[in-house]
Amino acid sequence: MSFRTLISRLSSSSKEAHNLLLLLRRSSSPTLRSQSSRVTRHLYPKRTPTIGGEGRPFHWSVLPLAVAASAGFGVALDLRSDPAACDSGHEGSESGGRVGGKNSTELVVGGFHKEVPRELIEELKAVCETNITLDHEERYFHGKPQNSFHSAVNIPDVVVFPRSEDEVSKIVTSCNKHKIPIVPYGGATSIEGHTLAPQGGVCIDMTLMNKVKELHVEDMDVVVEPGIGWIELNEYLKPYGLFFPLDPGPGATIGGMCATRCSGSLAVRYGTMRDNVINLKAVLANGDVIKTGSRARKSAAGYDLARMMIGSEGTLGIITEVTLRLHKLPQHSVVAMCNFQTIKDAADVAIATMLSGIQVSRVELMDEVQIKAINIANGKNLPEVPTLMFEFIGTEAYSREQTLLVQKIVSEHKGSDFVFVEEPEAKKELWKIRKEALWACFAMQPDSEAMITDVCVPLSRLGECISRSKQLLDASPLVCTVLAHAGDGNFHTVILFDSKSEDQLREAERLNHFMVHAALEMEGTCTGEHGVGTGKMKYLEEELGIEALRTMKRIKVALDPNDIMNPGKLIPPHVCF
What residue range is the signal peptide (predicted)? Predict the structure, then answer.
C-alpha cells in the first residue's frame, strides 16, 4: 500500500485509524518512528493531532504504519478491532444482541471458537499426565453450570486437573502462547454463568488442589489451596476450636469464593470474603505467580492486589493459594424464629435490630411462599407467613440477653410466635430450614429451573425494595420465593420457570430486571454476593458508570493482553477505550 493511499484511509476513517492504533501501539522499529513527523504533517497540518473526532488525542503509535508503507516495508492490514480493548462495537452502543451488553436480552452466551491446536494438547498432557480429559461428557459437565439456567453455545475443548501451583503456571503459559482461552473451575456452585466456556478452550478444574498447607493456631489464620471446600475446611479446624465464618452454598470452594467475592448468612457479623482473606497467590495470564502480601493482619505496603483479585472472577488470574483469617468457635449460641403478617414488618424488625446495636451473627428472612415450599419439602407445618430467623453468639448469659432484647423489638413491630432454642440438635434442625431453602423450592415444581436473583440495598431501603418487588412477584404467573440476609440489606428471589417455555423464561427475566433496577434506584447493587459472570454484566454501567468500567478494562488488558482469562465475563462487551 502506498503512503498516499494509507494516509487517505486514515484521514477518512477514524474507526480504521483507531483499530490500527490498537494493533500497532507496541511497535518499536526505529526506522518506522524516524519519519513520524512527515505523517503528522499530512494528517493534521494545522491543528493538534486528534483521532476519532474532537477531543480524542491522536496516538503516535499509529504513525509507524504510514512510514512503513512509504518506505516500502511489507505491511498486512487487519482492520478488525483488538478484542482485548474493544469486544463489540463502539463504547456507548446498545449492544442489544450481545449477552452482557447494555439492554441485552440474549440469554445464551455466544462466542468465537478457536480450534485448540494439537501442539497445545500435547503440552498439557506433558504437564498434567493422566489428569486431563477430552471426553465429551466430562467437557459438557464442566461447560454447563450445575445451579444456573445460563448456557453457552460452546463447551470446553479440554479439561485439566492441576495438582500444584507450578502445573497451573505451566498450563497458563502454554495457553497464553497459543492464545487459547482459559476458564477456572471450582465447586461449580456459582449461578451467574461464571464457569461457562463461550469460546471453548481449556477448563482448569482446581479441585485436586485441596490441601491445608499451614495452620497457625496462635495467629488464627490458615493457608489453603483453592480447591478445598469451606465445609471441609471447618471440619478440619473444629478440633482446634477455630472456624472460617463464610457459609455460601454447600459445595463452594475457597478459590471460587474468592473469585466471586462471596459472603453468606454470617456476613452481617464477620464480613464478606474480602474481609477474611489476609493474602493470596495467583497465576497471571503470562504464567507469572504473584503473592499479594504477608501474613500480617494489616499492612500499608503497596497496592492492595489481594482485594483486586477477590471478585475478579478469573478474569485477571487463577488463585492458587489463600491465607484466611479465622475466628474462635462461639462458646454458646441461641437460634430464634418469629412470624409477621407482612414482609415489610419483618424487614423493619431486621433494621431495628441492627440499629439497636445488638451484634447478631445471622438475620435471615423468608417470605410466605418460601415457608410453604419448606413445608412441602420437609413435611412440616410452619405458619405460612413472612418469617425471621436470628442467631446470637457469645457467652451463655450474653446470648440469652440479646435474645430477649430482640424479642422485645419483635413485639413492638407486630411480630408473633417468637421461639428460641439452645440445644445443638434443635439449632441444627432450625438452620437446616434456611440452608435447604433452594432445594425446597423444587419440591413445589420438581421439573422447573430456577432463576435466582441477588440484589443488595442500603439497610434503610430494604423493606421498601422487598415490598415493591413482592407486588410484582405475587402478580406474576410464576412461582417466586424471597429469601434475605436481612441484616445487611441483601435479598434473593428464586423464580421457578419451565426452561422449555420461551414465555416463562422472558417473564422470569422481566422480574429479575425489575428487581435489579429497583435496587439501583435505591443506591444499591445488582449483586450483593453472587457476582457478575455473564448474567449481571448488562447492569454494571448503570451502577458503576462508564469511567469505572473503562478503568477495569485497562487493568484487564494490561494483565491479560491476549484476553485468555475467562473471556466474556464481568466486563460488558460494549466497554472500549
Answer: none
pTM of model > 0.85: no
What's residue 227's pLDDT? 98
Conformational region of residue 490, where left means phi above 0, alpha means psi within -120 to 50, and beta covers everything else: beta
Task: Provide the pLDDT for residue 52.
Answer: 33
Residue 495 cell numbers, joined: 423464580
User: Are 95 and 576 contacting, i.e. CB atoms less than 8 angstroms apart?
Assistant: no
Q: What is the largest CA-CA distance in the chain?
A: 87
Residue 443's identity, in one-letter code, is A
Q: Exposed, middle or buried, 40 (CB in 10 Å: 0-12/13-18/19+)?
A: middle
* 444: CB partners within 8 A, 6+ apart: 372, 373, 376, 479, 496
151 has which bridge partners?
A: 108
Q: In the 8-state DSSP scheme, what is residue 445?
A: S
What's the rounded Cα separation, in Å, for the pair 196 and 566? 9
C-alpha cell at 473: 412477584
> Which pLDDT score, from 0 to 100, does residue 86 have?
59
Contact between residue 496 and residue 449 where contact means Cβ atoms under 8 Å apart: yes
Q: Parallel, antiparallel, or unpaired: how do β-strands 449-456 and 490-497 relate?
A: antiparallel
- What is the C-alpha to C-alpha distance for residues 246 and 243, in angstroms, rounded to an integer? 9
- Work out the number of other CB atoms within 10 angstroms of the CB of residue 251: 15
Segments of 443-553 assigned E as strands: 449-456, 479-485, 490-497
Contact in structure between 13 and 80 (CB atoms under 8 Å): no
Chain segment 167-191, per-residue pLDDT in tens: 999 999 999 999 999 999 999 999 8
**Is the CB of residue 207 less than 8 Å from the CB of residue 188?**
no
pLDDT in tens, 490-507: 999 999 999 889 999 999
List strand residue ranges (DSSP E) for 51-166, in order.
Answer: 108-109, 132-133, 151-152, 158-160
Helix (H, G, I), strand (E, B) or coil at 327: strand
Task: Show the CA angle centred on residue 223, arms to residues 217 and 224, nearest 5°.
Answer: 125
Q: What is the DSSP letter of 39?
A: H
Strands (E), 383-472: 387-394, 416-421, 449-456
DSSP 339: E
Regions of the chain with pLDDT less than 70: 1-107
Q: Which three cell numbers stand for residue 498?
A: 419451565
